[in-house]
Amino acid sequence: MRRSLSAFASTDQASIPLHVVTADSLAQWLDGQPERVRAWVANTGFQGRSGETLCVPDASGGIDMALSGLGSAAAQARNRFALGAARLKLPAGTYHLAGGLDPEAVAEQALGWLLAGYSFERFRHRPAEELSLPALKAPPGLDAKRIEILAAAEWLTRDLINTPASQLGPEELETTVLSLAEEYKAEVSVTYGDDLLVENFPLIHAVGRASDRMPRLLDLRWGDEGPRLTLVGKGVCFDTGGLNIKPGASMGLMKKDMGGAATVLGLAMMIMALGWKVRLRVLIPAVENAISGSAMRPGDVLTARNGKTIEVNNTDAEGRLVLADALALACEEAPDALICMATLTGAARVALGPDLPPFYTDDELLAEALARAARAESDPLWRMPFHAPYESLIEPGIADLDNAPSGGMAGSITAALFLRRFAEGAQRFAHFDIYGWQPTAAPGRPKGGVGQGARALLRALPEILGPDIAPGGRAAS
């Protein structure tokens, strides 16, 4: 069921015409229709608003055609994936797009249709017929395989984020990585528990040692030609805050604190499924930040893999610690591009809200490529600065670095500056401070876990690493 909902219908199936109209184009569309259609649309009050749908009956009472509205120009700027809303309203059946979409909008709307098929059903028992949704034939000229890969990868990300921590700890995250590796013939190595100290990953060990669920570093490699691309994702499977325990209200969504790991795994799946010519590496420090007698303490000084010392002034700022060891490991190979993704700071959400994650990079070409890609892929991002004058805020005096500067100012920027200290050696570095959660349902995005930034990266990276890495010698489009 889930596989069919994330794929297009067979082209040899009979299908119902689906006309997409805007509030402004409806009148012109109606001019070309027979009187019975014009009368039906007028009598039903359909106006082409965003997400509005209408079925026009034929003489026998079946569906002759369907209409889906995109709304006004202002509504289209505010609401992406409008066709996803139509999928949840139309009767079951197979449809084909019969016109009304600009060519550059077809891919977005087709992806929105597939994404609207997602629901997290693992713990719900419902009859299969309740899951029945309409299907869509791939529009002519669309790279249907690519859109289906994007949808399937996003479903993986959402499933991982939505799964409760009782069912998704470091071990289960490892199982997911191993399954991806088996499917795409990648290699995985894992460093566990006290071996993290032996192999010089002291920060990952310090964060995860208080939990009964063994901390580990997951290291996936795929591909043997092309530039080195390394993805690092925060894999804190649950975050109590440690001894600086979170209040209950703040702890409620902490199953999503591995959203960075979930997102880089989705991106890695896209890259492998599309057959990119890169030497891909995915590093995920998978831990649970728990409370016990062995938990790290406020005031502890830790030494990272690269030798830098860190004063722990808040055990709830643990994500940057586990990422620091992983980034230092990544840089030992001097990757051509190093991407870090993490559900890192509440400050990012205060500044930009849940739908607009910030990214940080010193590379102007990468920043420009990401800005263009975010618009083209309807995957919003906003660049924030590595503001050098704030470097002093992460320097406590007793150690090289402070994991939680006092004062509460510029929290997302200081976290990014902290991570940059461990990314030295990468040719290009970008950090994404994502939220990974859709707080209210929207077209193509039900309430719950959501990927952010992966599609934009998929489009932008060939501009930076060379178009030859992508199939056909071009950036994915």
UniProtKB/TrEMBL annotation:
Keyword S-adenosyl-L-methionine found: no
BP GO terms, sorted: proteolysis
One Pfam family it belongs to: Peptidase_M17
GO CC terms: cytoplasm
Record-linked InterPro entries: Leucine_aapep/pepB, Macro_dom-like, Peptidase_M17_C, Peptidase_M17_N_1
Family annotation (PANTHER family): LEUCINE AMINOPEPTIDASE-RELATED, PEPTIDASE B
Name of protein: Leucyl aminopeptidase
